[in-house]
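Support request, please re-run this one:
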Amino acid sequence: MRHHNGNHAGTDERNGNHKLPLNIEELVAAAEAALQRAFRPEQHTVGCAVQAGSGKIYAGVNIKACGYGPCAEPIALGAAFTAGEHVITGIVAVRRKERGEGFRIVSPCGNCRQLLVDYAAYAWVTYIDGSEVKHARAIDLLPGYYRTRWNERLGNAVVIEPWSERERAGTNGNGNGNGNGNGNGERDHSA
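Re-run finished. Output below.
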């Protein structure tokens, strides 16, 4: 599989960050390891790993139930947030190959794309397009995303690094560091 940064995907003109700041192989390996450790392999078919702003990697697996169970992406995000992380910089999901040994990268479903817009809009998502592995910001994977008070803060927000406690306190109250900073559409850099 080839890795590719699409035209607009992989760039964020607002902050000039044009490179992929992740070790994709390490992230994929963590997602695969989560799936290999799964409690019930027949019920845990997708593994996901997220990299936080701290550089730490957190993983999770999907949970199949008689009705609907959560995908692996919210489980991995929850693990990171539970550990006290505030910024997610990268995410990848894998599933077991239908034939043979090993794993393959999968794209996030529509629901998970919306979840990523809400919690980690500027995180790099590694996904599959045909047979090509690509990378894009989460917000670029869901044009016309569902707008709520929760994610409207994205209009002027650019987050790549963890915010200070003071700046985090100025967000819309979600505490994940993905807000406007001072509530006026600008990050507060005053002393």
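The chain is about 20% helix and 20% strand. The chain has a mean pLDDT of 75.
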